[in-house]
Amino acid sequence: MSYVKSSASYSRRSKRSRGLRRRAIALAIALLGVAAIWLFAHAGGESRRVVGGTLTRAQLTRAQPTLSLRSPNWSNTERWRLREQLTSAFAPALIGATAWSLAVVNSDGRPIFNGRADHAVEPASTQKLIVAASALDALGPHYRYHTMLAARRSIGGVGQLESNLWLIGSGDPSLQSADLRNGVGMLARAGLRGIDGGVVVDATAFSGPELNPHWGRADDGQDYAAPTSAISLDGDTIESHPSVNGVDATVWLPMQNVPRYVATQTQGILRARRIAVAMAPAVGSAPLDSIVLWDHRSAPLQALETHMLFLSDNHYAEQLLRTVGAEVVGEPDDTGGISAEREFLERHGIPTPGLKLFDGSGLSAENRVAAMTLARLLAASQSSLYLLLPLGGREGTLEDYDFTTALGRVRAKSGHLSDVSALAGYVTTLHHGRLAFAFMIVGSNGDADAAIVRALDELVEF
Questions:
Q1: Per-residue pLDDT for 26 more than 90?
Q2: Are 277 and 97 contacting, i.e. CB atoms less than 8 angstroms apart?
């Protein structure tokens, strides 16, 4: 069984999960003569490929609760009762907490509950929702990354390549060594026996430092703080097997100088296939007139984001951030990606009080996001994000959340840093349909995760 590197190791989760049946249906509601607002539940039978395994559509849609056929307006009595019950649920976690931001909104973004909802706090990994929505908007759900092997000329009749072999990356966060071995194997089957030049990696699709300068020193050398590169390979980490107290362990260490490391690895794969390489591996820009010999396509963006959101994969988020920056503002670095995110939020009328973004993953302790920003983002993006999020109490980083009445009725993204507990997503209530929520608590002396779970168990009853 493969181990998936992610920031989920921060989670302080509850200890049991339960079973509940769920259906997916489409719902149309008319509100006070305004145009119909549609809530969609996606259908389809294809599998979704993700690194480390395959998530099927059945896994993503099983046990979805039936939505109520009516979503009446909230009465003043209901709002008062909701405020009282959620305040009571959060109280044990907010006593002594340094900061919090709590919001619940209707599917059209209208506020239902406000607990300092405009206060920007550390979002931890719930921040990945911003890059996920921005990327889907800019690139589309079917976007694929391309990684290519190319040369100035095609393979000659004697199997000799009379130039360098270029490995050109576009930022695919899911590229694995096995993919490169398959590419080299295809060249070998096409007759390649030798290269007059060497392996040269082109990672110019991205710019900026490999490691985010806003990440803490405690994150240095950790697999969840891997470098960012246009030629990402194996999550830009290296597998190691140290012996700990006489027991062999498996750990991943971040690469240093990713393009050069990947060039060396690729040359090793060529020589393992008995393809002679005349020159040392190098890094540089591929000629514009290169001939593509092998083109590897990633899984569609929708599947990559499912992996990122289910497993809280920081590396995927950072790669996506630079991809969005390149596409939207022509700047393939963190600054460009953050500018693209801000443009997306502004264009959709999503409020951003106190917003401070320094990365795509939420790993930086300097990030600040208000609950109202995330809740309104979720309300505006539910048709694209809803089924990409894990089911509460059943899947991904939410598998062990101990929901009761809300079990099977929540899809959300968790977020944890050393002093942050957060959850943001959707909850399907008994009488008011689907709502979007964002709950973030910082520096709690109590069990913040348990308080968030209790609040959603209360909310689902409305």
A1: no
A2: no
- Mean pLDDT, the chain, integer: 86
Q: Which residues contact 56 (CB under 8 A, 6 or more apart)?
A: 47, 48
pLDDT tens digits along 245-277? 778 778 889 999 999 999 999 999 999 999 999
Does the pTM surpass 0.70? The reply is yes
- Token pair 């009595």 in the structure block, residue: 77
Amino acid residing at 214:
H
Alpha helix positions (H), 62-101: 76-94
Distance CA 386, CA 305 (A): 12
Q: Please state, in angstroms and rounded to a whole number, the distance separating the CA atoms of residues 39 and 263.
A: 47
Of 340, 441, 431, which Cα lies nearest the Cα of 126?
441
- Residue at token pair 């012996």: 243
**For domain 146-298, which architecture applies?**
3-Layer(bba) Sandwich (3.50)
**Strand, coil or helix: what is 310?**
helix
Residue 10 pLDDT > 50, yes or no? no
Please tell me the total number of residues recorded for the chain in this structure. 462
CATH numeric code, 7-142+302-459: 3.40.710.10
- CB–CB of 117/436 below 8 Å? no
Dist CA 215 CA 265 (whole Å): 28
3-state DSSP of 366-403: CCEEEHHHHHHHHHHCHHHHHHHCCECCCCHHHCCCCC
- Alpha carbon distance 104, 406 (integer Å): 15
CB 319 within 8 A of CB 298: no
CA distances for 49 relative to 146, 233, 369, angstroms: 16, 17, 31
Amino acid 156: pLDDT: 78
Q: Exposed, middle or buried, 330 (CB in 10 Å: 0-12/13-18/19+)?
A: exposed
pLDDT tens-digit readout, 352-385: 999 999 999 999 999 999 999 999 999 999 999 9
Q: In this structure, are strands 420-428 and 434-442 parallel, antiparallel, or unpaired?
A: antiparallel
71, 73, 78, 80 alpha-carbon torsion, rounded to 10°: 140
Rounding to the nearest 10 degrees, give the CA dihedral for residues 375, 376, 382, 386: -20
Where in the chain are the domains? 7-142+302-459, 146-298
